[in-house]
Amino acid sequence: MTTAPARPSDVRAGPVAERVLDNAPYASLSGPHRRFAEAHGTALRYQPGVSVFAALPSGAGPSEWADMAALVGPGATIAVSGQDLASVPDTWQVVESGEGVQLVDDGLVTAPDDEAVVLGAADVPEMLALVASTKPGPFADRTVELGTYLGIRRGGELVAMAGERLHPPGWTEISAVCTHPDHRGHGLATRLVRAVGHGIRERGETPMMHAAASNENAIRLYLSIGFRLRRRTTFMAVRSPAVQ
User: Burial level of 207, CB count in 10 A (0-12/13-18/19+)?
Assistant: First the structure.
C-alpha cells in the first residue's frame, strides 16, 4: 500500500516552516537531538561516535567560533554547514569545503517495503563496510542511534540502506542512501527512500535530504520521486587551532 502525496495544506512547507532548515544541524542539536549534544556557550556538536557534525548559530562570529574551539579542543576536525566560508577565523584550518544542495518533500510517494529490515547496533560493522564502498557521506559507529535505518539483504549480505540523520523540529533528514555497486540499477535506493519517508510521515513530520551538488545522478533521482530543490549549501570540514 502506498501513501498518496500530502495535500499542500498538510505539508510543512513554505518560507516560515522551512526557515528552520537554513541551519539544520543547529536546529537538530538544539531541538529533537538535544540528547546527543555536547555544548559550550553557543557551540554544539554531536557526541563523538554519533556524528562528526558540529553547529554554530547562523551568522557566527569570532566569539561563537571561540566557543567551538573550547568545545572540541585543539587540533580537532569537525564538519559544519549553515555558515559562510568567509566567517571561518584565520586560526582555523579549512580542510575541505564543497557545495551541496538541500531538498525537501514536495510530493514524495511513500510506502513501507516488505523486504526492508530495521538495522541496529549488531548491523553496524556491515553498515560501515557498505558506507566505505559507496561513500554516501559521514557515518560513524553510533550514527544508527539517530533514527530508523532500513536495509535490504541479498543472500544474507547487506546490499542497500537508508536512514534518518538530522532532525530539525518538524523535519527528518533521509541520509546514508547507498547501494552496493553489484546491486545498482534495481531501484533499491528509491524503495528505501520511500520506506524511510513513510516512517517520517507516520510521525507527522516531513522528509528532507542533503546531497553533494556534484552528485547529479542522485539529485536527479530525488527530484524525480518528489523532492524539491530548496537551497544550495556549503559543507566544510574544519580543524580547530592547534594551540588555544
Answer: buried
